[in-house]
Amino acid sequence: SDIKFKTADNIYSADTEFIGKLYFLTTEEGGRSEITDEMYRPLFKLKDGLNLTSADQKFIGKDRVNPGDTIQSEIRIIWKEPYLAALYEGAEFVLREGSQVVATGNVLKILNEQLRVKG
Question: Do residues 81 and 36 touch, judged by C-beta distance below 8 A?
């Protein structure tokens, strides 16, 4: 979707679920050995959760990232149902390729209120 909406600090795609801060592991830490391009779609899992889904990445201010980089990204969860009322600012998650963790992250800002923990 190319529909945009404005927030206080940026313009995000309308289908963005949340903004995350990501650290891409180095090759020595078990991460990827090559550059990661924008629109990367790894597996997404909350650190303390059981469910696994794919998640689109749209890097903020960069088109690609190297192993060892820390960036912010717009993240769109593909299978949303398990994550309804499950996210909160600061929630930790991992990005995986199969069983290999390639990045760790935390939720900075929730844009899809359906995903926010209630209460």
Answer: no
Q: pLDDT tens for residues 62-75?
A: 999 999 999 999 99
CA distance 82 to 67: 29
Give this prediction's pTM.
0.87
- Give the confidence band of 12 by pLDDT, cuts at 50, 70, 90: low
Taking the C-alpha atoms of residue 30 and residue 51, their distance in angstroms, rounded to an integer, is 22
Q: How high is the pLDDT of residue 34?
A: 93
Burial class (CB in 10 A: 0-12, 13-18, 19+), 2: exposed
- Residues sharing a CB contact under 8 Å with residue 9, sequence separation 6 or more, in sequence order: none
In sign, the C-alpha dihedral spanning 60, 61, 65, 70 is: negative
